[in-house]
Amino acid sequence: MFRPRLYAPGPVEVPPQVLEATARPVLHHRTQAFRELFARTRARLAEVACVPGDDVIILAGSGTAGFEAGLLACVPRGAKVVGVNAGKFGERWVKLARHYGCEVVELKLPWGEAVDPEAVRALLREHPDVQAVMSTHSETSTGVLHDVQALAQVVRETAPEALVLIDAVTSLGVAELRPKAWGLDGVFSGSQKGLMTPPGLAFAWLSERAWARSEGLNPTFYLDLRKERAQQRAGQTAYTPAVSLVAGLEVALGLLLDEGLEALWRRRERLNGAVLAGAAALGCRPYAARVSPAVAALYAPERVSAPAIVKGFAARGMRIAGGQDDAKEHLFRPSVMGYADRYDALTIVAALEEVLLELGQPVALGQGVSAALRVLAG
Amino acid sequence: MFRPRLYAPGPVEVPPQVLEATARPVLHHRTQAFRELFARTRARLAEVACVPGDDVIILAGSGTAGFEAGLLACVPRGAKVVGVNAGKFGERWVKLARHYGCEVVELKLPWGEAVDPEAVRALLREHPDVQAVMSTHSETSTGVLHDVQALAQVVRETAPEALVLIDAVTSLGVAELRPKAWGLDGVFSGSQKGLMTPPGLAFAWLSERAWARSEGLNPTFYLDLRKERAQQRAGQTAYTPAVSLVAGLEVALGLLLDEGLEALWRRRERLNGAVLAGAAALGCRPYAARVSPAVAALYAPERVSAPAIVKGFAARGMRIAGGQDDAKEHLFRPSVMGYADRYDALTIVAALEEVLLELGQPVALGQGVSAALRVLAG
Known about the structure:
The structure is a homodimer. Chain A is α/β, with parallel strands linked by helices. Chain A is 42% helix and 14% strand. The mean pLDDT of chain A is 97.
């Protein structure tokens, strides 16, 4: 018998008190009780997003809905934009922008690489009329954390009018993210990753200059951030909100704020670092040039199939992610960004030892776990 | 002390076993366990929607997202459409179609009236090039149940090419609805009404001829029914689904199917009928010309303010809806479409007696409840 464990880069394990909150009797969304819950949740969300007091819009939908709403809220159809495509999600935003008729100047990088801000500078010099630069922060498909602070600085210097729009789906609540200090213009995320809530909510924050863009915009009917902002400031939503998920989110945000943002970011980094160190001691190299704390993207050892590793974890009740597209055969991706502590990091490494042994690798039991323990003790 | 009771026309009271299911540990959406849950839920949903075996698409979003997805899946931008506007939601779909550049021929009715199919015939004769007719089935703002069977027949006879697109947000699982037998082309709904699940899921069904329309379509990136259909047939979704709400929905659908669709429709009608009869005995006339079982839309007695009645219910822990827009002062709307039985219908009437007494109305205690009991005994 195994206790099921969700060690995927989202959806993640959700704390029991958050699950309990989602199972409370449903509140009507036009009541004072919900208005207060919603206002409290929005205030906490803004704190966790490092934009205290600002509007972070909560939508019923997936992270993709959040990015779509954000793009349409500040980029006119047909605009020229730069899209950093260094993985599955970067690619998704390129497709999204093209869907709306944007001319996308694509900065395509090999999977696993982090964006070089100077490459963006060169592109912007060629295309000074770019209206936005889109990038993921934590690219889940490759485990890369892009340096969006440096990216934003280059954009400010080279194309001051261009907005910087960031997919923070797996970085919000996981990695250091300072939208205002870093000069970002749009940050979009979802409930089921670092915020430890079931999937079904999308989040969107815009900078003042992004809100001020109004020329030629054409949001969808459902995903209209301005309509939502007006409503949400009054404790309402334009359409029926997913009240139960909001109730869970409020509790989850409380847990994160109790820990403190900087402590949280440090802990996330250390837990993920322990998994990476343990895996390295077992011959599994990291895939990402610049590691995101949201996920340990790991190469399977030579001659070992990554899907067999994923299967080995599944046989132990543990859900980790495999590689996507071309990376399928050699990549596997455990994550400790959910409701997980240091013992979960150790558990992942211990299971990896067992799985590699089963697959015929010469592993001495404890070899990875000791390395992970040293990181945790550090 | 009062036990809180949700007697609003959505979100509704959710059965505890459904709440329990939403609070189970989160499933990863790319697992066999979720694929099976999702397939089972989709099969049950198709049965409850009276289209067994068909694709009913499940989206993370509100009912509005479902209607938007449906409209864009079969109506090209710029098309001419008829919009039946007989309340808040009919008005919403007119706005939606205009948002996408449709030329909307509006059939505007006074609130409380049901659509006369012959009026639609006359409009279609004037505008034989109409590509779709949009209407609500149960118009929640007025408590009207439109005869969409007769409406569809008129459309078939007069403009055979026009699609019939129906907002079934508060009729699915509540009122008789036979999409195929009635010749409907699109049926859209949400989780938080007759399906007794927390809000956050939208549903969309299309007829074969609606799916066959592909000329000039332009869905949004997130709300793309064809992309979803391809994924959902394989037990997947295009974007991360709201897995916890799906788990709750599966349980709720099981409860509805155990009762049986026809028994369910009859019971819903009887419960709502009991509320209407009790209210009538207390001097509260029904607002709707053709009553929807989803909600008892009631006129406050002469010289009584409807918001005061809503407030009186609130003081007893009961959330009912007031009137919207111009109907605010004289309309109130309790609903028994959620997890509610005959004793909830009686409770609503008993509370109404008390509230009217408090507001100075000459009510004899038991006057309304007896009338309601007679309907329930009938």
